[in-house]
Request: fold
Amino acid sequence: MKINNPLVAAVVITVATALVIGYTHIFPEIAFVTIITYISTIVFLSLILALSAWIYRKHKSSVDAGDIAGISENLNTEMIIWTDDFSAVYMNRHMRELLGIQGNDFDYKAEIMKAFGIDSLEKENIQKIIDNTSHEARFTNANNSVTTIAWSTSLVKKKKNLSLYLSTGFNLTEIKKMRLNLASTNDLFNYSMSLAEIGILMSNDMVNYIASSETVRMLGLKSSNINIKNLRSLIHTNDRLQFDSAIKSAGTDDSNEVKSIELRIKSADGLYHWYSYRYKPMNHSGGKLPMFSGALINSSEEHEKDLIIERLAYIDDVTEIANRNKLTDVGQETYEQCRLLKCSYWIIVLDIDRFHIINDSYGYKNGNNILKSFANIICKFVTSGGLAARISGDNFALILRDYGDDDLPSRTAKAIQEEFSKLATGDFSSINLSCSAGYSKMPEDGNSFLEVFEHAEFALKSGGNENNTICGYESRMHDSIIGKTELEKELAVAIDNNELQLFYQPKIDLSTGKVMGVEALIRWIKPDGTIVRPDAFVPVAESSHLIGKISEFVLNEGCRQNRLWQKMGYPEIVMSINFTSTDFYQKDLKDKVFEALAKTGLDPKWLEVELTETLALSDIDYAVSQMNKLRELGVKLAMDDFGTGYSSLSYLQILPITLLKLDRSFIIDIEHDNIAYEIVSSVIRIAKSKKIETIAEGIENPAQEDILRKAGCDFGQGYLYGKPMPAEKIQEFFEENMKQTQNK
Ligand code: C2E
Ligand code: MG
Ligand code: MG
Reply:
C-alpha cells in the first residue's frame, strides 16, 4: 500500500480543530481538558504521520523495483529482478511463459537456476552472472525445446548486505539455430566436396590462389595459399600452355560463361592426375584484375573412359599414335593459342618415299612394321605442347613449338630422314628407306590450322617425286599449287566426261620399214578442241589418285584398239602403253593386265608395257618380281628413255626386259656427235648379246635413221615416220605403210 496523501492529514487536522473549538464553546467547564486532549491527539497524529512518512520513504525502494517490474511486465524480452539472497525474485510475463510458470506460487530458486543455466545458487555461480556482461544460459523451455539466452545483469540498488539486480535477456535461440545451420551447411558443403572430390581454387589477382581443404588434400599442398608459379609447376608441361591461355583470356573475357579446361596436375601421390578446372572469368571493369576462381574436379576416371573413346576416335590402329582427327583437334586448339599467346608452332608433314613398294613387295605386315618404326622415330622429336600423328597411309605430321629457330623444321626432318634410313637393315637391307617433308608455320602461314596444314602439304608436294626432299612453305608456292589443284579438279571432270583419248605413234622396223607397233600416248581433248599433252597433266594425275583411272583407261583402250585393228585385218602389231611407278607397283597389276587382255581377247604378245629406268631401279627386287609376273602372262616389257637415268648396263642383266628404248637425247645429234654414236652402238651391241631388242626414240631425219640402222638398232620411232595421231589417222598410216612396204 502507498501512504502519500498529506491532504487527508490536513483535512483530518482541520476537522479535529473545528470540533475541539466547537466542543469548548458548548462545554466551557471541560475546555481545558478538551484542549489538552486535542493537543495530545495532534501530537499523536503528528507522530503517526512522521512514522508514516518514514515508512513511506522506507518503502520507496520497493516501489522502484515495482515500477521496473511494472514496466517490464509486458515487454517482449526476458527480464528478471532479483536480490542476491533470492528473498525477492521477479520474472516478467515473457520469462514466466518461457519457463511455463503459472500464478505466483512457484519454486523461484529452482526456476532462477534454470533461467540462468546454473546448477546451484552458490556464490561463485551468482558472481559469474553478475560479472559477465553476457552470461549465456541454455535450458529446456515450456515447449520442450532448447532456449539460449544471453543475460546482461546490472546492479539496481545495494544496501548493506543486500543487492538488487536487473537481468535483461537476449534470446539467442534463433541466432544459434542459424549459426548451427550455417555450420552444418559448411560441414555438409565440405563433406560433399570431399566426397565428390571437388576442390576450389580462388584468386582475385590471378597471382595468389586460395585452395579449399579438398584442393589441399587432392594436390597434397602444404598450405591453402599457393601462388601461380607454384601452381603452374604442378601442371603437366603439356598442359601449361592451356592454363596460361585460360588465365590470359580470363583477363579479357566478359562473356560471363562457365569455362572448363582439362589439366594434368601433380597430386598428393606424386603422380599426374587429370582435373577439370571449371571456372568463370569475371572481368571487372575499372582497371581491376579479373577474378579467376573455379572448381577443380578430379576427372581421371572420365579421362580413362575418354581414353578408350579417344583410342577409338583419335588413335591410329597401326602405329598407336594420334590420327588425323586428333591432329586436327590439337592443331586447331594450338592455332587459337598461337593467336592468343603470340607464340608460334611448326607443322611438318612427312611422306615415306615409295612406301607402296615396301608394302607390296614385303607384305602388309612388314609395311606396318615400317610405319610403326617411323612413328616411333617421329615421336622422339615431339617437344612440350607438340604432337606426332599418322594422317593417312604413309603420311605423318608433327606439330613442334617454335622457339625462334627457323632451321628447326628442316633440321628435325633431316634427323628423321637419317634415323629412318638406318632401319634399312636385315630384311629391308635392299630398300632405300627415305622420306620427304614439307613444313609451314602457324599462325602466319594461314588463316586457320587447316590452311597452314594444307600449305605444309603443298610444300611437301613441291618437292616433286624426288626422294628425301625437305621444303618449307612459301606464299609464292601457293599460286602454282592452287593452279595444280584446280587442274586436278578439272582433270577429274575430264576423265568422267571421256575427254581423254589415245593417240598412236608408229614404230618402224628399220630393216623393212614396216610398222611393227604403235605407242599409245594419251591426250586430253578439251571440249573447245584444245589438245593437252601428257606432260601437262600426267604428273598432276600421278600426285593424286587420278593416275589409276587414267592408266586403267589406257590399258583397256590400248588392248581394245589393237584387237580391233586385228579384227579389221591390219597386220598384227605391238601396242605399247606407258606405266608410272604408281601403276607399276600395284599389287594387283598382273590381274588388271590379265583382265584387260581377257576382256578384249588380245594375245599378250601384242601388248608391251613401257617402264622408265628410274621407276624400275627405285626398288629393283620388287620391280623384277612385278616384271616377271607380266612376263609370265606373255606381255612384252620395254625400258623407256634409256640413258636418262642411272644408265647402268649391268641392269640389263637383271631386268627381264624385251626391248630397250634409247632416249631421244642420244639420237637428237647422233649424226654429228661421235660420242653419242659410240654410246648408242655399244648399248645396242650389249643389248643384242642379251637378246634384248632396241628401238631409237625421236628419229627426225633419214640420216639419224641410217646411222641407227647401221649400228644394229632394230626399230625406230619419231616424227620422221609420224607424230602421235588419233586411231583413224593411224589407220590411214597403216594402209600407206602397207602399200609402201608390201614387197619387203
Ligand atoms: P615417252 O613415253 O618417252 O613418249 C615419247 C614422247 O616423245 C611422246 O611425247 C612423243 O610425242 C615424243 N616424240 C616422239 N617422237 C618424237 C620426235 O621425233 N621428236 C620429238 N621432239 N618428240 C618426239 P608425248 O606424247 O608428249 O609424251 C610425253 C611423255 O608422256 C611420254 O614419254 C610418257 O612418258 C608420258 N605419257 C604419254 N602418254 C602416257 C600414258 O598414257 N600414260 C603414262 N603414264 N604416261 C604417258
Ligand atoms: Mg613411252
Ligand atoms: Mg620415251
User: Anything to note?
Assistant: The first strand starts at residue 79 and ends at 83. The domain at 197-306 is CATH 3.30.450.20 (Beta-Lactamase). The pocket of C2E (ligand 1) is lined by residues 505, 520-522, 533-535, 538, 554, 578-580, 610, 640-641, 697-698, 700, 717-719, 724 (CB under 6 Å). The chain has 26 helices and 25 strands.
